[in-house]
């Protein structure tokens, strides 16, 4: 049975819900180490992250098995640490992906998991906790709970201030979320200040033309677009698209070079990939799709820009081995090119891209 | 450092606050403000006790460089930011490269020079705003202003970077008929010339020349651009040809110099023309083409005579004399050298005079007219003594000594060979006071006296230096 009675639990042991920390009434049947206060929360958690990490939680929440020697104990401890670290990263990535896909509700339990594990591994006031706080803040912003977001953000800011060595990437992330907060509060001055800081730190950490910096540019562009400063927004959007274009093209070149150089013994083709993890892919999709929407609204004056974005999206989906979506974007690009009667050269390049997908389909990857 | 007026720009709030914090800004408050009357509001407290706003905190806590960058980005000038960031990274890279070579790097980092950062902010943001509106002239002007500002010895690389940017932008400016493009070519040429890459410099200067042909544009100091182009082009060609002559590529050098003289002719500037022909003549001499050299040098002499330019006339005569000497026509050479000596004396050009006299003496020496030779060498030696130019003095001393030796050679030979009482007396007296010996027609005979006399005269020429006497080896 999945129901437990709080009173029947041994004295001093309080079982709390995963999601809300209320006294627990239910337990997950699959792993028996996770507790919930009600069915609603259990369903939410299962849909969000518990399905993926159910079995992984068992070794972390039960007592350690008996080891015969000191070495084995050490080994066991290390393994535990490894598992916790892996879980931290995994939950973080999953939560990020949800946020970029817009599913803020689902992101919250995953982010909470990440936070709790970070606390247990690194301690309560470590810099490592900051990304988790920021994620929670972003999720709350997405759900419209601005006060809660502010709380999380001030916690994050305080931790950053107190810690001596905080890397530029964390600063950048903090300022990005602060920028988003102020955007939600419609305080555009502050938002611009924070996003400027974000871009500066990201440039220090990664360089001015890196995909991690592109997020900052994108949000800044959004602000200007909201303030009706259209040409400024336009230049920033162009910059973002160019950054992504360069990255994806480079990646594609590297891959195709590798492909031509080393054909497998059985002549199999190598799998394509984007070199990004799932969250970054989701981020890329979100950014590029919103840029596309904005471009399409002004498509008559500058069709090249729309086609540019469509081509980038095509490349992204192609590298993600999602050929149906890739084809769709390529077709849209081709139609737009024909409609606007762009140069033959342009149409030919798009046609080449289409052929690429069909070539892939002709030789499917066989395992 | 060019003296541009200090920037009167309205700084954004952050940098204004940060400026106050900088060590170079005035810190002390005049004491009169600190004195408080009875029941008066304490202004000092009122002003300074408000506490700090977040912006003030940020301004104090962060470096000035960060404040500038954040200000740039806030207003959306992301291209300026990218450029500034790239320049700072380049500085870092240069410093790394320099660290390998030297222990301490004297140049201060860009971050710590607030004036330069201010200039960057001001001009780069204006350039970007102009670029958005596609006013390329504005962009060019702003970038050029930045290049001028950095035109000092330690920031050459920044200036070169902006020259390149100006060049790219200038390609896009079509409305002014290519004037900006021409100027940009000139700058790029200067860049390459300083760097030593003469071929590229020549290319750019050629483009500059072509664009300014037939136009009467003037640059900011009022000089006509076309003349500037000709000058720079000639200069580059000369440098190139020098290098080629060193590598013994005579044909190429001559070809380039011919091009140079053509350009000079087009430029309608006599001075440039004569310079070009002079160098062409020298190149022909080096290549061994004596006839052409003579012809060219003749034109040079004519032009100099037209211009009443005696110095260049002197040079022309010298060069012609050299050619004639190599050809073996000594009499002609002597004529020219005499003319040159006259001019040099008139114009008090001591070095030229020395050179000319030495050359004359050389020729006479070879031909056997030792008297004249030593006369000219004496003139040269006296002039160098006036100039107190030690290396030249030594050189002329040696020449003079050799000529004197030759002069006295026959006489001493005859004395020694005759070996009778009067000649020995003469010889001894000569040895005592080392003055000129009177030529005596008695002829004697021993062979080794030639070597001896030469030895003695070399001793004579070394005497003023104070070397120990080698008397022992004498008879």
Automatic annotation (TrEMBL), chain A:
Record keywords, A-Z: Metal-binding, Zinc, Zinc-finger
InterPro entries, sorted: TPR-like_helical_dom_sf (IPR011990), Zinc_finger_MYND_domain (IPR053248), Znf_MYND (IPR002893)
Tagged with keyword Mitochondrion: no
GO molecular function, one term: zinc ion binding
Residue ranges of every copy of the MYND-type domain listed in the record: 17-54
Classification via Gene3D superfamilies: 6.10.140.2220, Tetratricopeptide repeat domain
GO terms for biological process, alphabetical: sperm axoneme assembly
SUPFAM superfamilies attached to this UniProt entry: HIT/MYND zinc finger-like, TPR-like
GO CC annotation: sperm flagellum
Name of the protein this chain belongs to: Zinc finger MYND-type containing 12
UniProtKB/TrEMBL annotation, chain B:
Main location group: cytoplasm
Biased composition annotated in UniProt, kind: Polar residues: 447-459
TPR repeats: 354-387
SMART domains hit by this protein: TPR
Keyword tags: Cytoplasm, Repeat, TPR repeat
Pfam families named in the record: TPR_8 (PF13181)
Region feature Disordered, mapped onto this chain: 438-475
One GO location term (cellular component): cytoplasm
PROSITE patterns to which the protein is assigned, alphabetical: TPR
Domain of life: Eukaryota
Coiled-coil spans in chain: none
Gene Ontology BP annotations: cilium movement; cilium organization
Subcellular locations according to the entry: Cytoplasm
Biased composition, class Basic and acidic residues, residue ranges: 462-475
Function of the protein: Axonemal protein which is implicated in axonemal and/or peri-axonemal structure assembly and regulates flagellum assembly and beating and therefore sperm motility.
Name of this chain's protein: Tetratricopeptide repeat protein 29
Gene it is expressed from: TTC29
